Amino acid sequence: MEYKQSISRRIVFAFVLMTAAVGGLFSVGIVGVVHVVEERLISRDLGGELDRILKEDLGTGQLPKLDPGMRFFISDGSGVYAMPPALRRLDDGFHEVFDGELSFHALVRDEGGRRFVLLQDQSDFEAREQILYAAVVTGYVLSLTLAGLLGWLLSRKVMEPVARLARQVRHRDQLLELAPPMAPDYANDEVGELAAAFDYAMGRLHDVLTREKLFTSDVSHELRTPLMIIATSCELLAEEPGLSPRARNQLARMASACEEMRDLVQTFLLLARAQRKDMGIVPQAGLRQIADELVTQWREPIEAKGLRLEFDGENIAPGQFNAPFLRSVMSNLLRNAMHYTESGSIHLQLSPTGFWVEDTGAGIPEEQRERMFQPFVRGANPRGEGLGLGLSLVKRICASEGWEVSLHPVEPHGCRFEVRLAVV
């Protein structure tokens, strides 16, 4: 499993880990050297002293002459020279033995069928040894602390250009306007290469956004002209005398579809631009006004399918909203409800926080609800010739406007799409 830690923390951790490893090996080496030197030096001194006792003292029939802090034992000795049982079990050579709180260096030698043991008090040596060990431990802890501090200071210094580059890239104007290149502000190192890569990516993105903006402007200009011609033609035809009621009804539907297409074109263009400064020129409307228009538009096709359209617009959200976006969201939800409802009713309910559209269709299984707002995803039993983009468009519009759209099941069957509007 990869630990998601910042690079600064990784640098500090690397410094501390390296110091812990090197300092630990150094400390262990000091302790090992102390033990080796202790054994060799003291063993040599005790060996020389034991040779003197055996040759000069015992060899001439005299009692051993011992320095202060030394003890001497013989396996067949008596009195103060009688060997304790614990010393009899020691092997030949150098040892450390303890007697209560006292500690001794011991040299054991077997010679002529007899065992000789020479002890030397090492309490002072142990005290100095403990001081040395404490100094080693203190130095080890201090080295870890200094390593952490040095790693923190170094990480700040190393990551400073990276953080500055991140702040520059995060600036939204970098995405929408051709800002000055960032690479000249950095050294010719890895961060400079990253800045150059960002400059290249930003340049490509700026070119794409420029082409997209030109495309949307061209589309806006080219589509509005034929739509205006269609709308004008419908108005002129409606003034012709002698048209049958059926023909006038068809002309009204054509004019309504032309107006809806004009709103859709404007909706797609606004979503493609996604610039808040362009929203000031967008027509605004109240929730009840849009709802009344769409109820009038969708009542006939819904009732023609044998369904009931119920509308409750008493409690409405105050304020004005983006009219093309609100009309597109509500219209797509009504269309979706009509396509997936075979019998029963469709209910449009306005509320102080927004609105919801409820149907009595087959409903959407729980495992598919999260995916319904994704592009090209359709219900289990697709209706009509749609591509599964209606709910995706609703989700994009709501995200752009700060609205919230949610899907809830309805008992015994059906579903409800609820939209919470951000009041301006």
TrEMBL record:
Residues 218-424 form the Histidine kinase domain. This is histidine kinase. It catalyses: ATP + protein L-histidine = ADP + protein N-phospho-L-histidine. The lineage of its organism: Bacteria, Pseudomonadati, Pseudomonadota, Gammaproteobacteria, Pseudomonadales. It is an enzyme of class 2 (transferase). It comes from the Bacteria. It is found in: Membrane. CDD domains: HisKA. SUPFAM superfamilies: ATPase domain of HSP90 chaperone/DNA topoisomerase II/histidine kinase, Homodimeric domain of signal transducing histidine kinase. The keyword Transferase applies.
